[in-house]
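The following block was generated as part of the benchmark described in Methods. Ligand: beta-D-glucopyranose.
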Amino acid sequence: MNYKTIIALLVTLALFSCNKETTTPHTFTSSLWQYDTIIDSLLTQMTLEEKVNMLHGKHMFVSAGVERLGIADMRYADGPFGIREELEPNGWSPLGWENDKATFFPTGSALAATWSPELAYAYGTGMAREARLRGKDVILGPAINIQRIPTGGRTYEYLSEDPHLSAKLAVEYTKGVQDNGAAACLKHFALNNQENNRGTVNVIVGERAMREIYLPPFKAAVQEADAFSVMSAYNKVNGWWCAENDRLLNQILRNEWGFGGFVVSDWNGTHSTIASVKHGLNVEMPDSKFLGAALLDSVKAGAVSEEIIDKRVREILRVRMAIKPIPAEKANQVITSQAESQQIAYDVASKSIVLLKNEGILPIDLSNKPTIAVIGENAVREMGNGGIGAGVKTLYEITPLEGLKNRIGSRAQIIYAQGYVPVELDYARIFGNKPQEEIDREEKIKAIQNKKLNKEAIDVAAKADLVLFIGGNNRAVETEANDREHIFLPSGQDDLIKQLSVVNENIITVLVSGAPNDLNVVQPLSKALLQSWFNGTEGGNALADILLGNISPSGRLPFTLPVKLEDSPAYALGNYPQGVKSSDIFVDLVDKKETETTANADEAGNDPNTAYYSEELLVGYRWFDTKNKPVMYAFGHGLSYTSFAYSDCFTTKEKYDSNENIALSFKLSNTGSVAAEEVVQVYVHRINPEKEWPFKELKAFTRVELDSGESKTVDLQIPVQNLRYWNEETRSWADDLCEIELHIGASSADIRLKHKVLLQ
Ligand code: BGC
């Protein structure tokens, strides 16, 4: 047994063998409890068969009600960045409708780059309104796992590497959804931080890191937004599948946090009958392998009590009572995508774009009618669909090239070249069904095409005043079920930019990516560099508005851009990747795969089915800050077309008790010549703590809009309770009262003001 296996066993034993409930009682009362009296009466009228029938999928995205009693079916929609098109009832094939075309909202990392809880609320509103037009009850989103590894296949769907930022946005997204008549479904609970082997991997995480880094967005959305449903993740946490994880589902989510709604499995992510239903799963989706006939038999045989079944049915019925079903004849009467949602998509996109670097070349000056070479396949590529998993069939999607043409009109000459061959999804390769010779042959052809496209692009660039290189990843590169193997720009983009820079030194690079890329080549060769995103229906218009200076950039990075992938914590500690990718995509194959791959684990500990989170709290910037490691661009970074001055910082008191709120104020001035928005960030650095802490942690932020020359006083509050740590011995939150320093600035690396206070 190697040391990692021993640690794994100890953690698992400590956390799960004593089936003690956590002690902290919750103070939150879900609004869902109000329906319990009606439900008492309903339950007495239901047969056991009717009850069990509610606990599994009826169709791919429907779970059953009880028609006889007027209990409607529950209709689900993916989520999280647009309402998914209508699929055949028992498969994944689209029905090909016209009026299910929806608004493509900027994906998770774009939303997070706005650092705007208000926009997250608007986003939830737009999603819910479109869901209701389609007759849906539950939106499978927001997706709020922490971005632990830069290569994570779903980084673009998730929000941030930081729990505070993720939590604030998750709360408002959830409120926006539920204030507009649909239920939110928080996913994927919990610790689904990688896609490789997601259907087999066992996450070994210490309780403190779990509580302080990975669970806060879920907890906040439950307790501050009363989230009505939660999706269990595919993976295991500390030895138990998430869909049958008593600690996560019963003890933490329900008993400790007070969650009143229901838990739905991720699709095909259920593994058992008795453990699942007892340990807190309500609905097996999308079929009935475990919670159908097998469950009925288990109840009849006395292995599961009817009381448990009633409990699980009650939790679903509460949501059914809160969310009014839409009668079939009222659904799908108009096209899903609505103008007000398109406006929200624009607002989010326009505030999400991050200006990483600008050597005075932006905004683009059109006064001399320049020739602009737009180069890169991402300038014309739509990103609503394209990967494995949920996408959006959009009513329309403005690509960057269209956006530029819309906004520039005849004020410049735009010439376009594709530049490179994009990565496309190849299922045969993903499944390992393509012979190596065929792969080699395809690669050869691609290399020849790439050369030709490179050459065309260089010719175009040579004729232009300015090169706008629009590259990055795409939805085939960043996709569910697959982590990236590296973070280099795909399709030889680095090489192309090197060649472009020989013929034209005025390069502006726009990275259309949902996750980090290695920028070592592109950064020095670009006079300006922007991180754009999979930015929705209106993404191209928003990008053009930023490039032309119609609005000042105000997006801020929701994750760290490392100098190189190997610097990031899970890689630096050898915790990821864990050996060879061994599964999945079709998670229901996991049982077989798991035994095969476990047997393959080697003595060096490269077990592809175990992920050790030994970096503990040091995720994202917490790691780089604490270890004093350089980054390419820091968490929270983003430039503007103006400049801001920070001054006159004070707190209302010098000492705060553990039940008080630190009240902080400072003056923010727009010292430049254009109106703009700044995202101010407050980090807490502990000076003399008893416990070990990351160097600093984000604890407050806000967006401030200022005209040129204008100043405002910014007031922010930090509850001292939000600075507690999870005490693993007492299994509860505890104070580490000490002197702290508030670091106030424009990013985690650009601290403008410091102010000390004592916690007592
Ligand atoms: C994904 C979920 C999604 C579900 C239904 C799963 O593969 O992990 O996020 O909601 O499919 O499409």
